[in-house]
Design goal:
By secondary structure, the protein is mainly β. The chain has two domains: about 1-30; about 30-190, Jelly Rolls (Sandwich), CATH 2.60.120. The protein has one helix and eleven strands, in the order αβββββββββββ. It has one helix spanning about 1-25, and strands at about 35, 45, 50-55, 60, 80-90, 95-105, 115-120, 130-135, 140-150, 155-165, 180-190. The strands form two sheets. A six-stranded antiparallel β-sheet has the order 2-3-5-10-7-8, with no helix packed on it. It is elongated and about 75 Å long. The N and C termini lie far apart (about 65 Å).
């Protein structure tokens, strides 16, 4: 009799624990994955879909092989091309957010500027819109470029981005920004998965 009560109690505890795990799992069915500075984890699996992230130059770091100097003709001093490829066999929406993570910028505020060019090959979902040249503040910062997504059944649809960093020649003495440093990388974060299309 005592053994039956112990077994019943044990089974009840296991049942309640299983139910709690199921409810909590259903209530918080999302995850976050970050790709930053390397391509060691370039494919993110999202339920029945995947997002593959590829950076030119072997990683998300924004680096220049030459010292940064003012340029008069509008040519970027750093350029990073990256693609996000969506594959999905369900109606789910797979959103992602793109940021520039500035670890350090000793240049005078707004001396360096960034722009973003966006292309939606295949026309699926929503891409982060183009960004005109915008100044970068001194110090560390996170610059959110925006959120894009793939929607519904899709095979190898590609969102391509070109992020450019500029050091424009102002026509006046810019010696104050000699020997300064800029350290940053592109971060792509997978957001909560939706079953309906979010507003852009």
């Amino acid at each position: 009799m005592k053994e039956n009560r112990s077994n019943t109690l044990l089974l009840t505890v296991i049942g309640v624990a299983t139910l709690l795990v199921a409810v909590i799992g259903a209530s918080f069915a999302y995850f976050t994955a970050k790709i930053s500075g390397s391509e060691t984890a370039t494919t993110v699996t999202v339920g029945a879909g995947t997002l593959a992230i590829a950076y030119s130059g072997g990683g998300g770091a924004l680096v220049s092989t030459e010292p940064l100097e003012p340029i008069t003709d509008g040519t970027p001093v750093i350029s990073k091309t990256f693609t996000i490829t969506g594959n999905n066999s369900t109606a789910a929406v797979m959103p992602y957010t793109i940021k520039i993570v500035v670890l350090g910028n000793s240049f005078t505020s707004n001396t360096l500027k960034y722009s973003l060019d966006s292309t939606n090959t295949g026309g699926n979902g929503y891409i982060v819109p183009d960004k005109a040249e915008t100044g970068i503040a001194t110090g560390a910062s996170n610059i959110t470029l925006g959120t894009g997504y793939f929607s519904g059944v899709v095979t190898s649809s590609v969102h391509t981005y070109i992020l450019n960093i500029y050091f424009p020649d102002t026509g006046v003495n810019q010696d104050v920004d000699k020997n300064k440093e800029f350290t940053a990388y592109v971060e792509t974060t997978v957001e909560q998965i939706y079953t309906t299309t979010p507003a852009p």
